[in-house]
Amino acid sequence: EVQLVESGGGLVQPGGSLRLSCAASGFTFSRYHMNWVRQAPGKGLEWVAYISGNSGMTYYADSVKGRVTISRNNAQNSLFLQMNNVRDEDTAQYYCARDRTIFGVISIDAWGLGTPVTVSS
Amino acid sequence: NFMLAQPRSVSESPGKTVTISCTRSSGSIVSSYVQWYQQRPGSSPTTLIYENFQRPSGVPDRFSGSIDTSSNSASLTISGLRTEDEADYYCQSYDSYIHGVFGGGTKLTVL
How far, in Å, CA of B66 to CA of B16, rounded? Predict the structure, then answer.
């Protein structure tokens, strides 16, 4: 069974940093491209970032580019999102999401339960 | 970049059929695949349709996806509506720079 378990969310002050993690199990992690998707309270889904299976390629939404870094450790079946210089508008539930295997086609086939990030002073 | 426009809400009675549209603002709707996700209250999203009209295993055939090039839109059709179909539905695609794009979401009420 595919499982994606996020952690690392919490309360952070504006301008602060946070590192989100996602532990993957039930599939060969290195073979799958991965995404982070977020959802602000009461709002819709927003794609945040994408990383290829071998970490060679990363892509970011304009709203976070330059402030977040997506990375992965295939040996530890883990996905990460380093968030720096956070803003109020980064407050959201952050989902780890597995992509289908076609590179360049963002098509999510599995979602985690999410981890909440609240930016507030 | 382009946007995907969805109606904010739709409603229909149990047993009926409802269609949710997703209109692409620029560029052809067929230039990238469209996916559909269901999100029930308090839960994570789940995938209903991928690559325009493909259903993952386990998704009932009451859910179907289609593309209409004349309106540059994708649609999700749910037939035989059930109360458990009451949820938010999101379409999603991506651009040539590998940026994901979600529609704003449609709240389905099954009266």
Answer: 18
